[in-house]
Design brief:
CATH superfamily of the largest domain: MOFRL domain
Mean pLDDT: 92
Radius of gyration: 24 Å
Strand order of the largest sheet: 6-5-4-7-8-9
Number of domains: 2
Largest sheet: 6 strands, parallel
Low-confidence stretches: 325-353, 473-477
Number of helices: 18
Helix content: 25-40%
CATH topology of the largest domain: glycerate kinase, domain 1
Strand content: 15-25%
CATH class of the largest domain: Alpha Beta
CATH architecture of the largest domain: 3-Layer(aba) Sandwich
Number of strands: 15
Structural class: alpha/beta
């Protein structure tokens, strides 16, 4: 049973991570105005006599916009950002308009908002500056389909791609080749003005061409690559007619490619990453250490099928638990004798875990889900459910997962908390956790147990965080 002390600890650690990736603080740390000079990161821009246009898209850009206007005020000539429903910061702004649009599937508001952004760019000159605020979610929120392809077709394909198990890089490879603003193309609209992009990264490794589909970044992918993604996931036959026709023309060289490295349109573009998953994960580790835990950051590159990753994380937590018992009993032979098969084949003598109890292991990244069932959930909840099944019968281990934007999949939850008794508690309520996993139906199970993590929109978006916590009580056998 997950008690109030455990919940409070999980909330404390996750809150620390979210605070470290606060978009307003990140903007403030990377923007500075001194008389007529604006410093964006280490780059200086002379605003004397110049126009400053602020545009952007993403779940965190409402908060970023509010911080930007608070810093720059009347210096801003005009501004517009597209955000997801529920992510408007609610702060009155005079210079930057906050527009709500569709996510994760683009809608008519996404297209209308994007057109409003583009309408701010004509007539800008060399000395003018376009400041772009970019965060996760921009791929849906900043959208203008290529001529000949309708929004409805983009919506249908996006929905299928997001359910296919494709990585975000693969999904965006396809998206970029059906859009007039992705894959570096927004930079063409902004020229000849200078372009500074503030990026709150939600992609593992922070590749600029993937975050928000890289609207101002060089795109190394091609129409052929987009087609390969669709073939790999068996989606070619289901392509809408106009999408198939456009991609086919692109593969033949009959349609212009996205913006490639070395393109003159990118010559005056500078990107600055202001926060990412690493910042949040390190903050969690430091907080756990302050609370007396032995804490370790395992990775900020966690990827893969969510249910498989959940089993791996459960195995890592078990290894820490087993290692502490090994230390207590004094030898591997004694441990095996005391616990039967518990230690068999785990190679503890050669591969002992690096931490004793109590321990917190922190992981960051973003998994994927291949949706095969009709259920409701998200990658973090699915990871947690898989971990719960793998941890069944193991006391003193807790796994908690969180989408840092506060929204996991299409649900109102950010993630879930599980322990070694989660599966048995579910069965006691008449639920079959294995069946729920097969059906991609983690949300109802965790809702029934009261083990969802529900933060509401957090205002930030820097991938996911997972905590593996091994307690300090003896393992029961």
């Amino acid at each position: 049973m997950i008690d109030h002390v455990q919940r409070a600890l999980v909330q404390d650690l996750f809150h620390t991570g979210l605070s470290a990736a606060d978009p307003a603080q990140a903007v403030t740390a990377h923007l500075r105005l001194e008389q007529d000079t604006l410093f964006v990161g280490t780059r200086a821009y002379n605003l004397a006599g110049a126009r400053l246009v602020v545009i952007g898209a993403g779940k965190a850009t409402g908060t970023m916009a509010a911080a930007t206007e608070a810093l720059l005020g009347e210096r801003i000539t005009a501004g517009w950002v597209n955000v997801r429903q529920g992510y408007d910061p609610g702060v009155p702004m005079r210079r930057i308009h906050v527009h709500v649009a569709g996510h994760p599937i683009p809608d008519e508001a996404s297209v209308a908002g994007t057109q409003q952004i583009l309408d701010l760019l004509p007539g800008l000159e060399d000395d003018d500056l376009v400041l772009i605020l970019l965060s996760g979610g921009a791929s849906a929120l900043l959208e203008l389909p290529v001529p000949g392809v309708g929004l409805e077709e983009v919506q249908r394909l996006t929905n299928v791609l997001l359910r296919s198990g494709a990585t975000i890089a693969e999904v965006n490879t396809v998206r970029k080749h059906l859009s007039q603003v992705k894959g570096g193309q927004l930079a063409r609209w902004a020229g000849p003005a200078q372009v500074a992009v503030l990026v709150l990264s939600d992609v593992v490794g922070s590749p600029l061409d993937v975050i928000g589909s890289g609207p101002c970044a060089p795109d190394p992918t091609t129409y052929a690559d987009a087609w390969d993604v669709l073939e790999h996931y068996g989606l070619v036959e289901a392509l809408p007619v106009d999408v198939r026709a456009h991609l086919t023309r692109g593969r033949r060289g009959e349609v212009a490619e996205t913006v490639k490295p070395g393109d003159p349109a990118l010559a005056r573009v500078v990107h600055t990453i202001i926060a990412d998953n690493t910042v949040a994960a390190h903050a969690v580790v430091r907080r756990a250490q302050e609370l007396g835990y032995q804490a370790l950051l395992l990775t900020t590159s966690l990827e893969g099928e969510a249910r498989e990753v959940g089993r791996v994380l459960a195995a890592l937590a078990k290894q820490v638990a087993c290692y502490d018992v090994l230390l207590t009993l004094g030898s591997l032979a004694q441990a095996e004798a005391a616990s039967g098969d518990r230690f068999a084949g785990q190679g503890l003598a050669a591969n002992g875990a690096p931490l004793g109890w109590p321990a917190v292991l922190v992981c960051g990244g973003e998994t994927t889900v291949t949706v095969r069932g009709p259920g409701r959930g998200g990658r973090n909840q699915e990871l947690a459910l898989a971990a719960a099944l793998a941890l069944e019968g193991w006391p003193d281990i807790l796994v908690a997962t969180l989408a840092t934007d506060g929204t996991d999949g299409s649900t109102d939850a950010a993630g879930a908390i599980v322990t070694g008794d989660t599966a048995s508690r579910a069965r006691a309520l008449g639920l079959n956790p294995a069946a729920h996993l097969v059906l991609n139906d983690s949300y109802p199970l965790f809702a029934a147990l009261g083990d969802l993590i529900q933060t509401g929109p957090t205002g930030t978006n820097v991938n996911d965080l997972a905590l593996l916590m091994v307690g300090d009580r003896a393992i029961k056998r």
